[in-house]
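Give me structure tokens for this 258-residue protein.
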Amino acid sequence: MDSLYFAPSPLILGVAVIVTLVASFVKGAIGFAMPMIMISGLASFLPAEPALAALLMPTLVSNLWQAFRSGLRPALQSAWDYRVYLCVVLVVIALAAQLVRGLPQGALFLTLGLVVTVFALVQVVGLRLHIPPHRRRLADIGIGAVAGFSGGLSGVWGPPTVMYLTAVNAPKVEAIRVQGVVYLGGAIVLVAAHLRTGVFNAQTAPLSFLLLVPMVFGMWAGQHVQDRLDQARFRKATLVVLVLAGLNLVRRGVETLG
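Here you go.
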């Protein structure tokens, strides 16, 4: 690949910093969407593999921050409460990441985008969907597998996780913490998997580490906004971002298939 993408010009680095700032601000405010925004933005001027590699360190560190913001004990309790979902996501991410260099992603993006968009729009118009307690285990496995497969291939497993937490009606603070725990576990597995696949290497890693700086500023600013959101506004903001994220995934799927 062109060395420009591994020793970026000031212009390319500046755009990457702006993309990361926006993505991390959104994540700080509502708890997710950073990898999705980053991969969409970075892939517009970087090849797919360096773009995926670039988001790995910001994703890992931001999720460490998010998961343990309330302390170690609440994070461990969330991991236990959602252990089945978490385990399914991690196992499937590790398996799906091995396919990243050989499997077309267009169909995945299109399918996932349609599901996320329809789910969010249905709730925006006022129809509340929920997972009853006796269906929880089935949802843990089914939605967890979808999230893990998407995450392993594209680095994006936030929308299915948010769909799941919205459907079980998790309170704002718990939802943010659980997202952090799930995303942290997934980020660790994803980094390890892409060390194995070669996507994250000595050439692609430096940009990923550089983007930690704007990520810190974006997360800090976003969390100040999050602290001022009540449950209703938090839910509405989450659903709006889900609609936009779903439409973006549809766009990427159509472009990739086309």
